Input
Amino acid sequence: MAGQEAVAAILADPRRALVAFDYDGTLAPIVADPTTATPHPDVAAALSGLAPLVGTVAVITGRPARAAVELGGFAGRPGLEDLIVVGHYGLERWSAATGGFETTEPPEGLDVVRAALRGLLDSLGLGDADIEDKRLSIAVHVRRLPSPEEAFATLREPLGRLAHQHGLTAEPGRYVMELRPPGMDKGIALRHLVDEVEARTVVFAGDDLGDLSAFAEVERLRGDGRDGLLICSGSAEVTVLAERADLVLDGPAEVARWMGSLVERLSAR
Output
């Protein structure tokens, strides 16, 4: 019911709407090599059609902002002149309007973790895990290992301890653990955007555990009297978002189709 009210609110007053998307698993299919994760072929056109019709379209991702912009092909794309990309869970930002990137310094302790990580993985029998160094954080991917579920269960607690010892947060995801600075998450990043653009209606679409904080923020905003729509880009690997979502879509292809449907309804007003 709340999700239906949010869609009605967007149609009634689209300029007061903020529509935000996670990147991996929501706009781009999950792939074994995260450096090759480009958006689903229908996503770019759907985003370009939607952005001019609503107040703000944003991407909120755990990736570095620059990586998301480059992989997404967002820079210079017609229709996305006002797109905002928030990276590193809110620690970085790119604005299409200015073309500028904003970032911060790496957290204390990350260099120590970086130096210790390969040895720890070797000791766990996970020496073939992929380490993705994002400058402000480090992610360990086990999707390409022979038994990714077992590998993830093996590394989760040791990486959590390593992160805690050096003042970092261990963020679990879909066969990935990311060691990153505390104090910022997608929910806080979404809140800042809502306040900045004075959004009355908020949509957030995500697929992974790192998106739960953004879901919680939309729920909080609903409690404050705003309209909100929660979309889960469905996955058999993570079910908790689907249980809380107003709308469950079957991955980036259906997310693109949903955007296209909303564009049609907005255009027909």
About this structure: The longest strand covers residues 227-233. Residues 149 and 191 are 33 Å apart (CA to CA).
